[in-house]
Amino acid sequence: MTSDEQVHTRRTVVIAGAGAVAAAAALTACTAEAKDDATPAANPAPDGRPSAAKVLAKTTDIPVGGGVILGDTVVTQPSAGTFVGLSPICTHAGCKVVRVSGGTIDCACHGSKFGLDGSVANGPAASPLAPKSIRVEGDSIIAG
């Protein structure tokens, strides 16, 4: 065997090895993707369609005339049985509101206060809190 034949053989082995690694990676990606597709949907709706509903709270968790900050949603109950979803981001400087107390949603950064419907009760914010879509299903408050 000449040195040219040995180099060619080494190249062939390296190229073949790289091809095998690429093929294994592609096969692994396809297998992982197939597993994701095979996962059953959580919380199917009563009509059998998949539901991506996220329960935020129970209706009893939200006080009448008050509210609760639940991660990326503020849920208030201005009057019995009326629930409002709002963004927790203050429209003045983008701070997150910190509490719902005394009938207002309060931002600690610059003192803005919002009504339970999201309207501005006290500046410096000039715009209301953005609405967030929520709905009530039975005794649960659902995001979206």
UniProtKB/TrEMBL annotation:
Species whose genome carries this gene: Nocardia amamiensis
Keyword Cell inner membrane: no
Keywords, in A-Z order: 2Fe-2S, Disulfide bond, Iron, Iron-sulfur, Metal-binding
One Pfam family recorded for the sequence: Rieske
Rieske domain segment(s): 54-143
Name of the protein this chain belongs to: Rieske (2Fe-2S) protein
Domain of life: Bacteria
